[in-house]
Amino acid sequence: MKNKRKVIFQGEKGAYSEMAVLKFFPDAITIPIRSFHEIFESIINDENEIAVIPIENSIEGSVNENYDLLLQNDINIVGEIFQRINHCLIVNQKHDKKILKVYSHPQALAQCREYINKRELEPIPTYDTAGAVKIIKENNLTDAAAIASKRACELYNMKIIDEGIEDRKNNFTRFFVISRKIVTKSTGNDRTSIIFGLEHTPGSLFRILNEFAMESINLTKIESRPTKETPWEYYFYVDLEGHQTDKKIKNTLENIKNKAKFFKLLGSYKRGEF
Amino acid sequence: MKNKRKVIFQGEKGAYSEMAVLKFFPDAITIPIRSFHEIFESIINDENEIAVIPIENSIEGSVNENYDLLLQNDINIVGEIFQRINHCLIVNQKHDKKILKVYSHPQALAQCREYINKRELEPIPTYDTAGAVKIIKENNLTDAAAIASKRACELYNMKIIDEGIEDRKNNFTRFFVISRKIVTKSTGNDRTSIIFGLEHTPGSLFRILNEFAMESINLTKIESRPTKETPWEYYFYVDLEGHQTDKKIKNTLENIKNKAKFFKLLGSYKRGEF
């Protein structure tokens, strides 16, 4: 019998991260891990470990903690997943009373703010969307609902009373598949992620972006994060179209490496599908 | 008798935001407000209202919610404050037992992670640093401490048992003073903040940054935030040296306005002092 691949993710079973794992690795055994910090620790300690981590949401923006962990740890990005976020209002099977409170992760509560206000519910923050379902179930709350995925509802055998309750429907989360060992080959439809640090002089960022512009390399994202060492100095995280083995990309990255104060290649990976 | 100026801030009395208010307006009457959302609402509804809001921390990065609110609301940035973050471990006066738990805002807990691990404390997240002190006091907890400012300790008449417990000492938060009415004059030592949106074509960001580079205008920060309308399209927030009335800046901003899909001037203000 073939061994199934194990993939780790942060949160409880039923989390959107777990759905992303199963979209990329349909046969995987999904293993929940408590924190992003522990995810990276596992990857560093075991070269066969594979993880799926959220990196940005189309409404809320970047997951800062994971951007910092990508800088601090020696890992490769080997895949990209886009997961549609479809929030459900979930209650106990024997729910009977009027719902007064709603439990969920602060980001999910923020994404359903208009809906929550219209129903005049009291929002209660929790550490995880699927974890909110667990709380409602274990405490047998009948005047409260959770906001989480359909999958979380099914796993805990609960009842959905409303679906698609997010204020904006363009709600996607982008995930990275990370590992220490794996290196990907060019597929002709790839993205590459890098980090660089610059001298604090006028035009320093411009001179780096000029390298991409001269080669008509399309940048799909630029993000800045504090270096933490020197206040108001930043690392820049750039995603670009192409694979690190493409000649044009390879040469450009070489030039940037020479010009930047700091340079780190995070990996090249096939672009995720919507 | 001269009326004292009222300034609103988010959080409880004793919050770092309140300390920032008093650094900029030493005689102000400080008024706590529950959420950033309500801060902006007050500013919009009353042209005499002034607020101080955190915009980025030198370790944790940008306060995303406030970046989004600056885009959505018609306000001016009229001042900048840098506030040193100096975390204290605070207990009840009659504290006697061994401390097992520590309450604070998740960012403050994150900033003291090494300290918390070394002392083997269980971190409990709260909505505000000063609010954590309030919880310890009101519930008369003797096996728990709060992480907050010295000021919060004094206001609640509590006891500091350790000081400067943050893992990194370069810990500053940058605040904006915002208002609807006030417009500032050039002081010769100013900063200007803008937001722009771009067509998603190769080199579009480069072409905007080129405008600054040609005039040797120094950019001190560049931040991207999702537009929320179209997934993976971003608004760019740029801080630059100079005042909007300086001829060089005025012309450059005019050029950018013509090239960008979206442009918003947030204001010019005297640079804050450390």
Q: What is the strand and helix layout of this fold?
A:
The structure is a homodimer of 274-residue chains.
Chain A: E1 6-10, H1 16-24, E2 29-33, H2 36-45, E3 50-57, E4 61-62, H3 64-72, E5 76-84, E6 88-91, E7 101-104, H4 106-111, H5 113-118, E8 122-125, H6 129-138, E9 144-148, H7 150-155, E10 159-163, E11 172-179, E12 190-197, H8 204-214, E13 219-226, E14 234-241, H9 247-259, E15 262-270
Parallel strand pairs in A: 1-2, 1-3, 7-8, 7-9
Antiparallel strand pairs in A: 3-4, 3-11, 5-11, 6-9, 6-10, 12-14, 12-15, 13-14
Structural descriptors:
homodimer; 274 residues; alpha/beta; D-Maltodextrin-Binding Protein, domain 2; Alpha-Beta Plaits; 3 domains; six-stranded mixed beta sheet; five-stranded mixed beta sheet; 29% helix; elongated
Account of the protein in words:
The structure is a homodimer of 274-residue chains. With 274 residues, the first copy, chain A, is of the alpha/beta class. Chain A folds into three domains: 6-85 and 172-179, D-Maltodextrin-Binding Protein, domain 2 (3-Layer(aba) Sandwich); 88-163, D-Maltodextrin-Binding Protein, domain 2 (3-Layer(aba) Sandwich), CATH 3.40.190; 190-270, 2-Layer Sandwich (Alpha-Beta Plaits), CATH 3.30.70. Helices cover 29% and strands 34% of the residues of chain A. Chain A has helices at 16-24, 36-45, 64-72, 106-111, 113-118, 129-138, 150-155, 204-214, 247-259; strands spanning 6-10, 29-33, 50-57, 61-62, 76-84, 88-91, 101-104, 122-125, 144-148, 159-163, 172-179, 190-197, 219-226, 234-241, 262-270. In chain A, strands 1, 2, 3, 4, 5 and 11 form a six-stranded mixed β-sheet that branches. Chain A has a five-stranded mixed β-sheet with strand order 8-7-9-6-10. A four-stranded antiparallel β-sheet of chain A has the order 13-14-12-15, with helices on one face. In chain A, a hairpin with a 7-residue loop joins strand 13 and strand 14. The mean pLDDT of chain A is 93.
